[in-house]
Design brief:
6-stranded antiparallel barrel; 3 domains; Thrombin, subunit H; Pdz3 Domain; 33% strand; alpha+beta
Length: 466
């Protein structure tokens, strides 16, 4: 037999063998999968993957994404800001949510602004009114005098699943109408922004200038407002965060009506119930929110809640973590009686409490606005590190905590981030925002400002070119 024919026969035999082996493996995998789900009748079967037509979705949503250019008090015009040597057009992003001109963006985009200019995708420009701001969720509502505008429908962020595809649309570094895609990396992220942290994490590329723009699902709906990134370079490294649209649905009607948000308040400070804490309390599971403090004169105190109680439900809704408690109570109408189910020394107990308005009790302040010159020169919003806040952050230092960093500001260029604790400025200890303001006011133009910053338990110096 010719050698070529022999090689051909061997090849055919090998291919047949591989085919039979692959068939056996696939058959075994299919049988194993059926057995797996048969043994778990209460769990849903795997669903088909979500396929997104990003081309059609991009064409549909881009007309409703706008460029937002704020004018800050005491700052020069921001029409053509600079990043390095590249001229940038505009400052941030927003999304039109009603045909008559309401647009949603981030609070940190317009905080401290004396005027806001909006440019539509078709090139038209409008002066925008700030209808309301909510520093607690980093959302702001803008209004322009226009009608018949394109909008993007709001989705349901509670239905998001880790791994499903998403699209971010905005103006990164001033490059208008930029589209990036990725997946939902996680939900319910707490990143140290406040009591209502519940961020969507995505690896869709988000950069400075994307703030306030929409995060879109495969159905072409807004499911988040892009708000923050984690980065060591100032650019995207695949870790971005968006405010869930369901949180915006609670905030927007109130901002449109009164310019502010009213939230419910019980008057407790809660911390996560870790497995070690659960074991120490004699609890079988680490589910719920552990009450670490009950404020005097609060609804919780009047109802009989005590330190050490573990809140597991409020009006029948389960509390898996402390953020669940904050969000649920905040959305409860003021004056409503709620049933708070707790575990006290391992025993279940139902307590009735009357929800009050949040402003009636001690609370973390919203990010204060550094006034005029300091805001323009440094570009940060800070608040004092109180004993309560120090406990929540797990820090033992005194100083001021950075709540917001203005994009493109000297502070941003120096590498300051939200959550940093500034303990010294030009070798002077800080205890309040006024201390920082005095040091900044004394700095001559062009003189570097030396900051001692505590981040993740490590102290380091940063130099800000004021």
């Amino acid at each position: 037999m010719p050698r070529s024919a022999l090689r051909q026969r061997h090849a055919v035999s090998l291919a047949a063998g591989l085919f039979l082996a692959a068939s056996c493996v696939l058959g075994f995998a299919e049988a194993a999968t059926r057995q797996y789900w048969a043994e778990r009748p209460g769990q849903p079967p795997l669903t088909p993957p979500i396929v997104a037509d990003w081309v059609s979705i991009a064409e549909a949503v881009k007309p409703a994404v706008v460029n937002v250019a704020p004018q800050l008090r005491g700052a020069p015009g921001r029409g053509l800001p600079q990043t390095g040597r590249v001229p940038q057009v505009g400052r941030a992003s927003g999304v039109i949510i009603t045909p008559d001109g309401y647009a949603l963006t981030n609070n940190h985009v317009v905080e401290g602004a004396t005027a806001v200019r909006i440019r539509l995708a078709d090139g038209r420009e409008f002066d925008a009114k700030i209808a309301g701001r909510d520093p607690q969720t980093d959302l702001a509502l803008l209004k322009i005098d226009a009608a018949g505008l394109p909008v993007i429908p709001l989705g349901d962020s509670s239905r998001l699943r880790v791994g499903e595809p998403v699209m971010a649309v905005g103006n990164p570094f001033g490059l208008e109408q930029t589209v990036t895609t990725g997946i939902v990396s996680a939900t319910g992220r707490v990143i140290g922004e406040g009591a209502y942290d519940d961020f969507i994490q995505t690896d869709a590329s988000i950069n400075p200038g994307n703030s306030g723009g929409p995060l879109i699902n495969a159905r072409g709906e807004v499911i988040g407002i892009n708000s923050a990134i984690f980065s060591r370079t100032g650019g995207s490294i695949g870790i971005g965060f968006a405010v869930p649209v369901n949180l915006a649905k609670f905030v927007v009607p109130q901002l449109a009506e009164s310019g502010q948000v009213v939230r419910g308040w019980l008057g407790v400070t809660a911390q996560p119930l870790t497995p070690d804490l659960a074991a120490g309390l004699g609890l079988p599971r680490s589910e719920g929110a552990l009450v670490s403090q009950v404020w005097d004169g609060s609804p919780a105190a009047a109802a009989g809640l005590k330190r050490g109680d573990v809140i597991v439900e409020v009006d029948g809704r389960k509390i898996g973590r402390t953020t669940d408690l904050s969000l649920l109570v905040a959305a409860t109408p003021v004056g409503k009686n709620v049933t708070v189910s707790v575990l006290r020394e391992g025993k279940p107990l139902a307590i009735t409490a009357k929800v009050a308005r949040r402003e009636q009790g001690p609370q973390l302040s919203s990010a204060p606005q550094p006034e005029g010159e300091q805001r323009a020169r440094l570009g940060v919003a800070v608040e004092p590190v109180t004993s309560e806040l120090a406990g929540q952050l797990g820090v033992t230092v005194t100083g001021v905590i950075v709540r917001r960093v203005t994009e493109g500001s000297p502070a941003a260029e120096a590498g300051l981030r939200p959550g940093d604790v500034i303990t010294e400025a030009n070798r002077q200890p800080l205890k309040s925002p006024d201390d920082l303001r005095r040091v900044v006011d004394a700095v001559q133009p062009g003189t570097p400002l030396l900051l001692l910053v505590q981040r993740d338990g490590t102290a380091s110096y940063l130099v800000v070119k004021v």
